[in-house]
Amino acid sequence: QLQLVESGGGLVQPGGSLRLSCAASGFTLDNKGIGWFRQAPGKEREGVSCISSSGSTNYASSVEGRFTISRDNAKNAVYLQMNSLKPEDTATYSCAVTRSVCSLTASPYGYWGQGTQVTVSS
Question: In angstroms, rounded to a whole number, what is the distance separating the alpha carbons of residues 112 and 115?
Answer without folding.
Answer: 8
